């Protein structure tokens, strides 16, 4: 069977537009690329190759949303594209919110959290998700992450664990 037949006989061309929970074409392409690489399809598969080409082109654009950068960083980590992964992580680190010994990312223009007595603020699900994608991008690398990356990743994990609800789960859009 050809690779396209293994995908159910459907040829897929990524860089598509879809209405719904995804902000833009680049985010959708990154989601699909991540799913294909986690199957795992090889980076040499034509669909994955095309998707990565689209993402590489998009990664050079300056106006990418922080959520999109997080998705792309993880997709490049899965694909073994270290230069792109590191460049996006470096860009993301400049946009990080570093507070109380933890690190996370939030959407631009979002109101800062308010400290109220007897109230535990939990971030919206999109912020938990994008922060989790950055954590995955830090930890998904060959060779294994450096000690510096692991230390930074622990600050991200600290923030994520603080977002758990009393039942141990997280709010989610998915």
Automatic annotation (TrEMBL):
Residues 13-174 form the Alpha-macroglobulin-like TED domain. Pfam families: TED_complement (PF07678). InterPro entries: A2M/Complement_sys (IPR050473), Alpha-macroglobulin_TED (IPR011626), Terpenoid_cyclase/PrenylTrfase (IPR008930). GO terms for cellular component: extracellular space. This is PZP protein. It comes from Haliaeetus albicilla. The gene is Pzp.
């Amino acid at each position: 069977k050809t690779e396209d037949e293994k995908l159910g006989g459907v040829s897929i061309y990524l860089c598509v537009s879809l209405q719904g929970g995804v902000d833009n074409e680049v985010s959708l392409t990154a989601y699909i690329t991540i799913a294909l690489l986690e199957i795992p399809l090889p980076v040499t598969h034509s669909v994955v190759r095309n998707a990565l080409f689209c993402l590489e082109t998009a990664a050079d654009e300056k106006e990418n949303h922080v959520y999109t950068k997080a998705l792309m960083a993880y997709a490049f980590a899965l694909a073994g594209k270290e230069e792109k992964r590191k460049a996006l992580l470096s860009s993301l680190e400049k946009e990080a919110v570093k507070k109380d010994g933890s690190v996370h990312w939030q959407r631009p223009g979002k109101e800062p959290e308010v400290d109220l007595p007897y109230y535990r603020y939990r971030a919206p699900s999109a912020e938990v998700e994008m922060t989790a994608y950055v954590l995955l991008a830090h930890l998904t690398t060959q060779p294994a992450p450096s000690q510096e990356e692991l230390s930074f990743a622990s600050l991200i994990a600290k923030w994520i664990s603080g977002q758990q609800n009393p039942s141990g789960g997280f709010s989610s859009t998915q």
